[in-house]
Design a protein that fits this description.
single chain, alpha/beta, five-stranded parallel beta sheet, about 40% helix, globular
């Protein structure tokens, strides 16, 4: 994935799941396990349809789809437990991770995710990226998660950069909507061909 910042770009902001890190298969497995315990078979097509939403919003959508009354918080916590059992399997998405590492120390770097803070922190630490970012904003830090622009605006505030001078990397429609609503330029990584796995000499904290 080739990226050249615009002259006006003063900070880079990355979505986490499915953008910087290849966590979506792990989240799908965790949701599938959690819902199977409740008598629901989660199809991958539905999971993808709900991509980019916060866990609480996903539970709300599942309640509507299956005419259930799950507690959004309780079911999200159960799913997070199932995900954390798989956290050591997290790997970077090569092209995007190389961009983050390339501009570390040159531009401020932020993470803006609909995930909760606890899971985000553990995921970043497990993948080795926690020390490379200057601001991490999650759904716990704002009143409205993506597709509202709040997470990106708060990330820009913490980085001390005008939102119009931030460039975002995203992989979901809700994330793109949120970034554009914040007045930021954005790259949809789904439009780029898959990159080879990152190599150890790229200056990033992964193991070959």
């Amino acid at each position: 994935m080739i990226f050249t910042p615009h002259d006006r770009t003063q900070a880079l902001i990355f979505d986490l799941d499915g953008t910087l890190l290849d966590t979506m298969p792990l989240h799908f497995a965790a949701w599938r396990e959690t819902l199977r315990n409740e008598g629901i078979l989660l199809e991958e097509s539905l999971f993808r349809e709900l991509g980019g939403l916060s866990s609480v919003a996903i539970v709300d959508a599942l309640n509507q789809r299956f005419s259930r009354s799950f507690s959004p918080v309780a079911l999200a916590v159960a799913k997070d437990r199932a995900y954390l059992q798989r956290i050591k399997e997290v790997k970077p998405i090569g092209g995007v991770a190389r961009i983050l590492c390339r501009y570390t120390g040159e531009l401020p770097i932020g993470i803006a995710t609909n995930e909760c803070r606890a899971v985000t922190s553990l995921t970043l630490r497990s993948a080795g990226f926690a020390s490379l970012v200057q601001a991490v904003v999650t759904s716990d830090d704002v009143d409205h998660a993506k597709p509202a622009p709040d997470i990106f605006l708060e990330c820009a505030r913490r980085l001390g950069v005008d939102p119009a001078r931030c460039h975002v990397f995203e992989d979901s429609d809700s994330g793109l909507q949120a970034a554009r609503g914040a007045g930021m330029s954005v790259s949809d990584i789904r439009l780029f061909p898959p990159d080879e796995a990152p190599q150890g000499d790229d200056g990033c904290p992964w193991e070959e």
